[in-house]
Amino acid sequence: MELFGLDIGGSGIKGAPVDVGTGELLSERVRVGTPQPATPGAIVESALEVLAACGWEGPVGCGFPAVVKDGVVRTAANVDESNVGFDLQDALERETRHPVRVINDADAAGLAEMRWGAGRGEKGVVLMLTLGTGIGTALFTGGRLVPNTELGHIEIAGYDAEMRASDGARKREKLGWKKWSRRLEEYIRHIEDLLWPDLIIIGGGVSKKFEKFMAHVDVRTRVVPARMHNAAGIAGAALAASEVLSPADDGGSGSDPAPPPGRRRPRRAPP
Ligand code: BGC
Prior knowledge:
Blueprint: E1 2-8, E2 12-19, E3 24-25, E4 30-33, H1 40-53, E5 56-57, E6 60-64, E7 68-69, E8 72-73, H2 88-96, E9 100-104, H3 105-116, E10 125-131, E11 135-141, E12 144-146, E13 155-156, E14 159-160, H4 161-165, H5 167-172, H6 177-195, E15 199-203, H7 210-214, E16 222-225, H8 232-245, E17 263-264
Parallel strand pairs: 1-6, 6-9, 10-15, 15-16
Antiparallel strand pairs: 1-2, 2-3, 2-4, 5-17, 7-8, 10-11, 11-12, 13-14
């Protein structure tokens, strides 16, 4: 099945059609800058631009950098406050006239890594950390997601953890790898004591430099880099949408007729 994955972030909104059987992006990602301020109306408009640039007509999965319950944005750590309470899923459904599923961005990336990447086949407690502007977390047990964990916001030394240990903090404070890895180690040790995970997957752009910082991080849990890099958020969002459209055997009938696949119109140049 082919579905569209959208990954809304603090600095960019990215999207591509995805083969949800393989996790493959079926064309180059299209990216537009996240409007500033990132208000609900402006975000929806930019998301529609990405869909139009890809000529997509069909169901959409979308990751958003906040707690999302039933399509409604519930927090706003790295987006405009006015998003709190906004039913992004409903707004996108009305605009596109197609089914849309909106979930937390780290949950989307985690779903993709568990299905096609570093977490494939892992049955224990797996925690995906996305290290970007903030720290996103996705928690899995027995391969199932516990949605909307916000473990990037645990308090360490009196601070919100993501203010000290995210990649955003490293850049903002111009920290060297060694100094930043101390903070990451402190963060992971806190998490380990709370959750005792079997595996930690590190995602986010900085995961490409995994060896550079993990060489200095001494923790008891097995820690591995994400494998799907910047495709994870897009592919995982599409996967989440596909699970709603054709529910798995543990939730839905499993024998529902397949939904009509998405169609692509001739591609237009990104605006
Ligand atoms: C937000 C999370 C999000 C993460 C990564 C955090 O500040 O609270 O919901 O997943 O950033 O974008």
